[in-house]
């Protein structure tokens, strides 16, 4: 009776598994398992050059640990496995394109898990660094700044790339190529998985190479499928559980990997030869002690020999008794043989039963689902789950209760209706529902299948993550990440949807930020992003919740409003402009140019409406833009002077000195006014320089000075955005050029440097010398003039230096020189 109950239990469990697999697109058939495409054939790929895991032997046949394991898993699940080997990156591309169904061996990483779904691990291995035999590495830190050969797409390559050791990686397609480049001295290091590297060294005869034993990135090694292929993932996990439970996995592992792990162990022993020498000394001591003990044993043996002779006499007596017992034993032997045969038959039956139960248990444990059994009244008859975290109450408390005892009323009624419908139709029923589990809202899907006329199997899966991921993807696909407004894709789809007669008049309003590029160049892109976010906030406040606002370009926004006339659009624009007038980003005002157009005729092309609105916006931008740029320039100057008060006084003095020199040189009133303004703005580019560098009390480092040298180019970009400052921008760009051509940024020589820039160079240097600096003493005007003369012809225009000294400063240079020398 006991064996009968075991077989009945086996049949019931098999039926449960068959029903479950059918609920997820897999049909259990006699002798095999068929997938959705009505075929039990799957294509498994791997790396063609990755022994001992996967490779092609001399006869052109796929071989290796991964290949043998894939075939064993397929056989356990009734699948026909076709092996396809290729270069590793192409194998991954084939899986992503659906050309193959699975990869038999892939290392896990969080980045790869975004693309692939992994089975439970079937092995754990690590990488290592391979070098010439004479090379010894203490740690991975020894590779800082070095060049390392890696296999393209391998997990070791990914690990070294993210190690922040400034390692330069040389990618090749195979392990053999990487080791060959180290063997011939082209490179000193190769970063590879340990076992493929050891295998290749032996196969290729690289006796001059060695592995360092660094144990890089020990990682799970699993089978992988596409993330959307959960059915195949389920089958592979079940197959792995089966081959592990039956011992077949260990046989495959020992055949392909065991021998290399043993050799790797012997190589690691060589790293500790000093320890072995000490151990050898201890062995010598132990041998000496052994000899001494042997002497004591010999002495004791002589004493025991006499006792042994007495025991032999006793043994003779026992032998006679034993002969009498042998006759009785022959009778018992015949009986024992018959019992043994019966016992063997019982054990074989129990073994088969245990294997079947182990397979069934492995499949259930691999499932991420909860399996319920209901009667027609919605009462829980049974519950099986590998993870009990999703149960409302423990299994023992759940069995015997009804749906209404466990779930909210509406949900319990929906579940009971689905149970009855499944029993009536004899087909699969499914429904989704939400539950609050430990204070968190979770989403589940239940699939119901009739098992008998009075029993229903319900398989429940937590789909919260998939649902939320789907909602997040939908949100991101239609939203601009910076502003949170709709993006261009959503706008274009919505434009097509609203372009109907019932939505006429259909108003389209274009909005463009004024001066965004100038703000990005002056204050950085973070400030520009803040400006765009502020504009999005103003537009949102100025519109109703149901009106569509989208960002369709870098600084371009569009409003799409059904049923709005041109007069109403003008009123909305005025309202938004008033809101914008109250907003600033730091010291910069928010300025927006608008243009709008209204479609009133259904036959009118919407693209033409869009173009007219855009043209209108750009017309207004031509009038509003210059004013905004001028305001922004003033804001930049204010911000710079707030960052460094010394810059404000310095700019004013340079402006006055430059104007005086221009007047002496006979410049026109317009040019004098221009150079006065240039003196005020010549250091405007310092707005983008770190405030700590500008205000540093001591001398600048070489890196800090290189940062300071960027300010002429930054100033040029800022001023060149204003039409009437284009010439001035050129002069600001050149005011640190030197007469001998060693200046920056362009290295201009002599009179190729604009006159205005040569004037600013002299007045800027003069004021810097007579002004207070924390890192040097302040020079007198006489000493500063002498320094100008010393640098005339190298740094400064010699003619302008003489005019500046004699006509502007009014210094008697010769008397000054004599006075200084005295």
TrEMBL record:
Pfam families: GGDEF, HD_5, PAS_4, SBP_bac_3. Residues 304-366 form a coiled coil. Keywords: Coiled coil, Membrane, Transmembrane, Transmembrane helix. Residues 625-820 form the HD-GYP domain. Residues 647-769 form the HD domain. The keyword Cell membrane does not apply. The keyword Oxidoreductase does not apply. The chain crosses the membrane at residues 6-26, 275-297. SMART domains: GGDEF, HDc, PAS, PBPb. Residues 504-634 form the GGDEF domain. InterPro entries: GGDEF_dom, HD/PDEase_dom, HD_domain, HD_GYP_dom, HDIG_dom, Nucleotide_cyclase, PAS, PAS-like_dom_sf. PANTHER family: CYCLIC DI-GMP PHOSPHODIESTERASE PA4108, CYCLIC DI-GMP PHOSPHODIESTERASE PA4108-RELATED. This is PAS domain S-box-containing protein/diguanylate cyclase (GGDEF) domain-containing protein/HDIG domain-containing protein.
């Amino acid at each position: 009776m006991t064996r009968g109950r075991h077989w009945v239990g086996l049949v019931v469990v098999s039926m449960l598994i068959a029903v479950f697999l059918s609920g997820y697109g897999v049909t259990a058939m006699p002798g095999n398992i068929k997938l959705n495409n009505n075929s039990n054939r799957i294509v498994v790929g791997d790396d063609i050059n990755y022994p001992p895991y996967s490779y092609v032997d001399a006869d052109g046949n796929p071989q290796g640990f991964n290949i043998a394991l894939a075939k064993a898993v397929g056989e356990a699940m009734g699948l026909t496995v076709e092996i396809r080997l290729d270069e590793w990156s192409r194998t991954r591309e084939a899986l992503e394109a659906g050309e193959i169904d699975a990869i038999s061996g892939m290392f896990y990483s969080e980045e790869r898990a975004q693309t692939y779904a992994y089975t439970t691990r079937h092995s754990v291995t690590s990488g290592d660094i391979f070098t010439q035999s004479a090379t010894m590495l203490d740690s991975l830190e020894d590779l800082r700044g070095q060049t390392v050969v890696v296999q393209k797409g391998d997990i070791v390559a990914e690990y070294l790339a993210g190690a922040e050791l400034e390692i330069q990686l040389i990618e090749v397609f195979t392990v053999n190529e990487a080791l060959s480049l180290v063997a011939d001295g082209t490179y000193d290091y190769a970063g590879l998985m340990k076992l493929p590297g050891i295998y290749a060294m032996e196969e290729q005869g690289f006796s001059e190479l060695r592995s360092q034993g660094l144990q890089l990135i020990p990682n799970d090694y699993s089978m992988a499928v596409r993330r959307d292929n959960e059915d195949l993932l389920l089958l592979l996990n079940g197959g792995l559980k089966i081959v592990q439970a039956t011992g077949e996995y260990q046989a495959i592992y020992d055949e392909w990997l065991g021998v290399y792990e043993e050799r790797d162990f012997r190589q690691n022993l060589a790293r500790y030869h000093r320890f072995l020498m000490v151990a050898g000394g201890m062995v010598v001591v132990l041998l000496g002690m052994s000899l001494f003990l042997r002497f004591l044993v010999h002495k004791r043996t002589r004493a025991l020999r006499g006792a042994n002779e007495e025991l032999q006499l006793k043994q003779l007596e026992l032998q006679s008794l034993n002969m009498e017992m042998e006759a009785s034993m022959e009778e018992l032997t015949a009986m024992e043989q018959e019992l043994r045969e019966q016992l063997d038959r019982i054990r074989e039956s129990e073994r088969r039963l245990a294997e079947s139960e182990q397979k069934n248990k492995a499949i259930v444990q691999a499932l991420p689902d909860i399996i319920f059994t209901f009667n027609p009244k919605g009462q829980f008859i049974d519950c099986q789950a590998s993870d009990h975290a999703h149960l409302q109450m423990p299994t023992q408390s759940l069995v015997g209760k009804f749906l209404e005892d466990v779930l909210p009323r509406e949900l319990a009624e929906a579940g009971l209706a689905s149970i009855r419908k499944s029993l009536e139709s004899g087909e699969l029923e499914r429904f989704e529902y939400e539950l609050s589990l430990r204070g968190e809202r979770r989403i589940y899907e239940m699939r119901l299948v009739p098992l008998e006329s009075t029993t229903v199997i319900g398989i429940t899966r937590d789909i919260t993550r998939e649902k939320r991921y789907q909602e997040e993807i939908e949100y991101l696909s239609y939203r601009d990440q910076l502003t949170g407004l709709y993006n261009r894709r959503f706008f274009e789809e919505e434009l097509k949807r609203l372009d109907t007669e019932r939505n006429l008049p259909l108003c389209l309003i274009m909005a463009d930020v004024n001066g965004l590029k100038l703000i990005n160049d002056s204050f950085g892109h973070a400030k520009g992003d803040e400006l765009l976010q502020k504009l999005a906030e103003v537009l949102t406040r100025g519109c109703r919740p149901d009106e569509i606002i989208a960002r369709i370009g870098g600084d371009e926004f569009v409003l799409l409003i059904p049923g709005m006339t041109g007069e109403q659009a003008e009123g909305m624009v005025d309202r938004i402009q008033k809101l914008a007038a109250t907003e600033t980003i730091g010291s910069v005002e928010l300025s927006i140019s608008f243009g709008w157009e209204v479609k009133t005729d259904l036959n009118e092309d919407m693209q033409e409406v869009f173009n007219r609105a855009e043209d209108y916006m750009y017309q207004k931008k031509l009038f509003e833009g210059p004013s905004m740029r001028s305001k922004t320039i003033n804001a930049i100057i204010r911000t710079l002077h707030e960052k460094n008060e010394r810059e404000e006084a310095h700019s004013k003095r340079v402006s006055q000195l430059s104007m005086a020199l221009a007047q002496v040189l006979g410049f026109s009133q317009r040019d004098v006014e221009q150079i006065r303004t240039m003196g005020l703005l010549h250091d405007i580019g310092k707005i983008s320089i770190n405030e700590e560098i500008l205000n540093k009390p001591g001398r600048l480092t070489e890196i800090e000075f290189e940062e300071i040298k960027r300010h002429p180019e930054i100033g040029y970009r800022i001023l060149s955005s204003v039409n009437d400052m284009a010439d001035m921008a050129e002069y600001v760009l050149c005011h640190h050029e030197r007469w001998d051509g060693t200046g920056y940024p362009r290295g201009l020589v002599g009179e190729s440097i604009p006159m205005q820039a040569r004037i600013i160079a002299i007045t800027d240097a003069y004021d810097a010398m007579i002004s207070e600096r924390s890192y040097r003493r302040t020079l007198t005007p006489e000493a500063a003039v002498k320094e100008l003369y010393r640098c005339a012809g190298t740094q400064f225009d010699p003619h302008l230096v003489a005019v500046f000294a004699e006509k502007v400063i009014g210094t008697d240079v010769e008397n000054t020189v004599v006075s200084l020398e005295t």
